[in-house]
Amino acid sequence: MSEPAVGRSQLQKRLGLPFAIAIMAGSVIGAGILRTPGVVANEVPMLWVAMLLWVLGGVYVFLSVNVAAELTVALPKAGGIYVPVREAFGDSMGLLAGWAVWAGYAAGGAALALAFADFLGTSVPLVAANKPTVAIIAMLAVTLLNLPGVEEGCVSNILGLAIKLSLLACVVVAAMIAGPASPTASDAAPDLTGQGSVFGWVALITAFQIVLGAYDGWQGPAFFAEEDKDPAHNIPRAFFRSAAIIMVVYLVINLCVFAVLDLELLRSSELPVAMVVEGLLGPAGHTMTGLAAAIMALFTLNALVMTHPRILFGLARDGLFLHHATYVNRGGTPWVAMLVGTAIAIPMILTGAYVFVFKIQVAAAILASVLYNAAYFTLRRNRPDLPRPFRAWGHPVLPGMILAITFALLVAVIVADPESGLWVGGLMAICIPVGLHLGHKRRVAKATGTA
Asked: Which residue, 9, 21, 212, 280, has most beta carbons within 10 Å?
């Protein structure tokens, strides 16, 4: 079979199970896990409560991929969440879901590039003095790596996950060798129970939101289903195996941090894993952790840059974005869509606009998740004939649980931040008429034979 010509709007089936696992686990496991244990512990300073929240976060991912596995293999097309939402609810809601997810990836790219520069700057003074420039260079370098073709991105993501897991394994070894540390001269053992600590429901909910943020990015395999050689076999396995890897890694890292660091030391640390490594290597441990975090941020950025073009490709192919975003080069990369994402991320790096986008996108992304899980039930009812090589376990109870959870999260976010709710309402006010107009235009073109 000859390769598609440059500009042809067709993705290529070059990916398999190792990549699907790497893109999910690699998108989730990043430098964030080096920071978040301290942030969560600051909100809920009790070992068993913090660990319970991390377990519940893992359960949330398992419930989510249970639904995603069915929807993805039933509709194995590029676009991720957007695809079943549009199939179930039409162009308007599909456009809303697609743009919400893509905006999150654009903002996430800017944030990760800056995080790379920030971590690298802890050990390289020249970088610390030029963080925006270094972040832009990182963004361009990762884009150039992925631009030639899918094979390059596949190898770099698998390699990236292997390096991340190796670095985190070093943290576990350091924790086992170093033993407990104390912020004072006292020989008292670390307080693992947090007895006497007081926190309320707001702190508990905030901590859980932070945990869910650390687990975010699990949708990876769905974006590449169209390019998988055997999606019916590979996608469900990738979802569940990656979810297991992520949950185990997160629980082990948290246990190590709690076991080594005094509770108050943990709560006050911006990079608690660095303190664990310092227990073994001394002051050099902080520098080593900064370099490791920079590497992890860079590989996570690599996964994101490879993913976001598939969202624009799916939107463009369905007439919901510029047609040029469907152009695919000989290597299988939607190159125009990739360049659009990078072009949007660079101004965000320079202006800090990604913070504003994240603020709106949190509520929009949760709304997209609600629509996605609702699409599961809608398609079960309206498209019973749709081939489903994998069917979600525990129907309708388990899928119903994740729908209820995402809806509750949406309500909680809007109540806590009404301004974001207003922005989401404005986004809906734009997407609904635009989606209806584009859908009508496409139907007219089809009827008149001009499509």
From this structure: 21
